[in-house]
Amino acid sequence: MSVGHFMEAPDLFRRVAAGDEAAFRSLFELFAPRFQAMAARITGSVAVADDIVQDTFLKIWINRDQLSELQHPGAWIKKICFFLSVNYVRRQAIRDKVMDKVEYQAELAAKGLSAGELTDFRQLLGFLNAAVQQLPEKQRIIYRLSREQGLSATDIAGEMNLAVSTVKNLLVMALKNIRLSLQHAGYPLLLALLIDLLL
Questions:
Q1: What is the arithmetic mean of pLDDT over 13-26?
Q2: How far, in Å, CA of 192 to CA of 173, rounded?
Q3: Higher-confidence residue: 65 or 57?
Q4: Alpha helices (H) along the chain
């Protein structure tokens, strides 16, 4: 039976919701390869993807009673795996940015920039990160996937079940909102227009 058929098979989900472990194993065998591939594309790591799939099905089992109440439980499961993957990327990006800041600040200092200029640089990075965090959820996720993972609008659209045009529009809105946040914080328009290159 195809994935599509199983995603529309309410009996399988009802059995899992009732605590049927055999049905849960069937669900895992059906979805795990598909979600592992999706998580690997997002995180760039097969090993990490394996862990995320395990976490996904752990959450499904813990919250299995909700399956019988959902119209599209297959999409719900995919969303859990997708957001766990994105959350991993977000945490890694934050960790990487900390290291990048340290290295870049050392490079700037070596070029003779003053303590005041370095302080301004750190403040700018702080404003950038704050502006991204303030974005609406979909804009923030799309921005992170585009700028930090290098995913195309088509790839993002496939992962988030959105039209490509919607992804592009949300990315444009995200950049606009970040620029506006920087302008409100007192940064000049020219710098604000370059913001998507700085993050």
A1: 90
A2: 14
A3: 57
A4: 3-7, 10-17, 21-43, 46-62, 73-110, 115-133, 137-147, 153-160, 164-184, 189-193, 195-198
